[in-house]
Amino acid sequence: MNYLLFFGTFNPITKAHLAMIEQCKKTIGGKAFVIPSNLKFMDKWKKVDHEFLSDEERIDLISTARSSPSDFEIILEEVNESVTCRTIDTVKYIMELVSFDPDVDKMYLCMGADKIPELNKWYKAQELFKMCALVALDRDISGCELLKQILGSPADEFVMVNMPKGTSNISSTQIRQAYYDGNLDSVKECLPNKVYKYLKEKKHG
Fold first, then answer.
1. Which of 2, 49, 137, 144 is deepest in the core (most CB within 10 A)?
2. Would the pLDDT of 148 be above 90?
3. Are 2 and 29 in contact (CB under 8 A)?
C-alpha cells in the first residue's frame, strides 16, 4: 500500500490542496492522509495567523471540503499535541497506525516544489527521507534541482507530479488577505464551495 502524507496549516484549505491530493492519488495511487499543523509549534519557525481560524474551524473545513470521507483521512495528532509536531515523529506515528511494512508499503511525503529549499532546516531531514519518498508538486519547479544537494536523495525516491492547470498559484495567504480586505468574492473560485460559504458568513456575521 502507498501512503500519501500532506502536512500543512490548511488555513484555510483551498482547491489547490484538494487538487494536490487528487493528483497524487491519480499519479501514485494509495491512501491519503492530511495532517494539519499545530500553529503554536509553527510559530517557532515563521509567523502564523492565529486569528483567522481556530483549530476547530480549520479541522471542520478540512472535513467539509471532502466530497467523501474516502478522499483522505485527517490526522489530528499534531493539533492535539499527541506527538512532538516534528514531521519525522508524526510519520513514525502514522507508520505505527497503519502497521507499516517496509517490504510491501511505501510512504510518500507530498509538498509543493517551492518548499524544497526549506528542507535543510527540517529536523533529521536525511533520516526522514530514508523513511519517505518525496513527492514535489510543481508550484515552483526551480526548487527541484536543490533536492540532491540538500538531501542526497536518490532519483527513485523523488517523484515529480504536475499540478492541474489553474491551481498552482492558489495560496491560503492570498485567501486570508482577500478575507481581511473584505474582498472574498475575488478568490471565490479558489475555494471549495462550502469553505467559501463558511468564510462569507463568518465575515458578515
1. 137
2. no
3. yes
Question: Which residues make beta-bridge pairs with 33?
Answer: 5, 73
The answer to whether the CB of 111 falls within 8 A of the CB of 134 is yes
Distance CA 61, CA 73 (A): 13
- List Cβ neighbours of 166 (8 Å cut-off, separation of 6 or more): none
Q: Is the CB of residue 122 less than 8 Å from the CB of residue 94? A: no
Question: What pLDDT sits at residue 44?
Answer: 66
Domain 2-165: which topology? Rossmann fold (3.40.50)
| H helical segments located in the chain | 15-27, 39-42, 55-65, 87-97, 125-131, 147-151, 172-180, 193-204
Tell me the pLDDT tens digit for each residue of 33-70: 999 998 887 766 666 777 899 999 999 999 999 999 89
pLDDT (mean) for 77-102: 94
Say what the alpha-carbon torsion angle 81, 82, 87, 91 is, to the nearest 10 degrees: -160
Can you give the residue ranges of every domain in the chain? 2-165
Helix, strand, coil share of the chain (percent; to 5): 50, 15, 35
- Rounded to the nearest 10 degrees, the angle between the axes of helix 193-204 and helix 55-65 is 150
Length of the chain: 205
* φ, ψ (nearest 5 deg) of residue 131: -85, -30
Phi, psi for 13 (deg, rounded to 5): -65, 140
